Amino acid sequence: MADRLVSALQFGRGLDGLKAWSHGNHEAAADLAARYGYGPVRELWKMRLTTATAELPDVGLPNGVTLRPFVPGMDEDRWLAANRAAFAHHPEQGSMSRADLDARMAEDWFDPAGFLLAVDAEDRLLGFHWTKVHPRHGAHPAIGEVYAVGVTPAAQGMGLGKALTVAGIRHLQGLGLHAVMLYTDADNTAAVSLYRGLGFTRWDMDVMYGPLASV
C-alpha cells in the first residue's frame, strides 16, 4: 500500500479513488493509512477448518436436486451465467469472464472432479461449489480451499448453499487434506454464520483501505 500511495503523490495523481489492501492488517499499514486520511472500507477474512476434528452435519440435497462434476467443453457458459446471477453484487467473483474461467481451468490445480454442480432433473444449474487444492509448499502441507460457493436466485431458500458447502468439504476430506480454508467478506453475516456453524474459525484478515471521504 505504501508504494502506491507514494507513487500517486510523486506523480501528482492525488489519492482520489485509490484503494489498497493490507494483507494481514498490520499496525504499520493502519498508521500509514490514517496519516493520509484513509480508513478501512472492506475486511476479507481467511477462515480455516481442521478436517480431522471437523464434525460436519448430515445435510441432504433438496428434492429433485443432484450433484455432478463440471464437464469442460459443456458447462462453461451455463456456469458463467449462474455465477453472474449468484454474485451479482460481488466486486470480483460476479464479473468473471470466459477468459478468466479459461485461465483458471488451464492452471495445474484445476480439477473438474472438485467442481461440483447442483442440477435439477432437467440438468439446469442451480448452484455450485468449486473447490481448490493448494499443493504442499516447503514444510507446509497441502490444504484445501472452499474456492467459490454460489446459489442462483431461483434456488435461494432451499438450503442448497449449506448442502453444497458440506459436499465440497467432504470431497476435500476424501483427498486426505488436513485442513480446509476459505475467504469471505466480514460483513457477509450469512456466510460467516454458516462457516462458523461448520467449525471454521478466523485465521487471518486482509483489510482494504480507501479515502474516508468516499466511504
Describe the structure.
With 215 residues, the protein is α+β, with helices and mostly antiparallel strands. Helix content is 28%, strand content 29%. It is built from six helices and eight strands, in the order H-E-H-E-E-H-H-E-E-E-H-E-H-E. The protein has helices at 2-10, 27-35, 76-86, 98-105, 160-174, 189-197, and strands spanning 20-23, 38-50, 66-69, 115-119, 125-134, 143-151, 179-185, 201-211. Strands 1-8-2-7-6-5-4-3 form an eight-stranded mixed sheet, with helices on both faces. A hairpin with an 8-residue loop joins strand 5 (125-134) and strand 6. The longest helix has 15 residues, at 160-174. The chain is globular. Residues 8-14 have low confidence and may be disordered.
Q: Strands of the biggest beta sheet: in what spatial order?
A: 1-8-2-7-6-5-4-3
Overall radius of gyration: 19 Å
Structural class: alpha+beta
Low-confidence stretches: 8-14
Order of helical and strand elements: HEHEEHHEEEHEHE
- The residue fraction in helices comes out at 25-40%
> What is the mean predicted local confidence, pLDDT?
84
**Total strands:** 8
Q: What is the terminal-to-terminal distance? A: 18 Å
Strand count, sense and closure of the main sheet?
Answer: 8 strands, mixed
Task: Give the arrangement of secondary structure elements.
Layout: H1 2-10, E1 20-23, H2 27-35, E2 38-50, E3 66-69, H3 76-86, H4 98-105, E4 115-119, E5 125-134, E6 143-151, H5 160-174, E7 179-185, H6 189-197, E8 201-211
